[in-house]
Write a structure and sequence with these properties.
Elements (H helix, E strand, L loop, with lengths): L3 E9 L4 E5 L2 E16 L4 E15 H10 L5 E15 L2 E16 L35 H16 L1
């Protein structure tokens, strides 16, 4: 329950890599996030430090990322932040910041996008159950059927 949920806005830095694995589809790409600030001395916007995140998407989100996310596009990513470090021989070798994405979308403040709902294949019901017979069985007496028919005609006439 104690997860760090983040919302990050940046540019796609690498082509998404899509894989079909036993647990379902998976995709990953690198996201570059550069802070910008107003430099009062020079009177211009200046780029600050760039942070890189590895964004992971699973299942349907992975398939959608592979279909429509490309290098250089501005995106908004929401998900769980996971920071990992690896230590070898007592020295820190590297640190990695990953985001397990819950939602990914194009940043519409910097461009336009055309949304298209993903088509999911229809799955048949898992267990075939017979439909209940809700109709009342009709009488086998032909006279009864004639009376019913005459009653319906009388209702239709009025």
């Amino acid at each position: 329950m104690n997860e760090t949920i983040v919302c990050v806005v940046g540019n796609v830095a690498t082509q998404p890599v899509y894989r079909e694995v036993a647990a379902g589809p998976s995709a990953r790409f690198r996201l570059a996030v550069t802070a910008r600030y107003w430099d009062r001395e020079r009177n211009v916007w200046t780029d600050g430090h760039t942070n890189f995140f590895t964004v992971w998407a699973n299942r349907q989100l992975a398939a959608n990322v592979a279909a429509c996310v490309e290098v250089g596009q501005p995106v908004v990513v929401q998900g769980r932040l996971k920071v990992r470090t690896e230590v070898r021989e007592g020295q820190q070798q590297w640190a990695s910041a990953d985001i397990d994405a819950v939602a990914i979308g194009h940043d519409l403040s910097r461009g336009t996008a055309l949304f298209q709902r993903a088509v999911r294949p229809e799955t048949p019901p898992t267990a075939a159950r017979p439909e209940p017979n809700w109709e009342t069985p009709r009488s086998a007496d032909p006279q009864d059927g004639q009376e019913r028919q005459q009653g319906q005609e009388a209702v239709a006439v009025t």
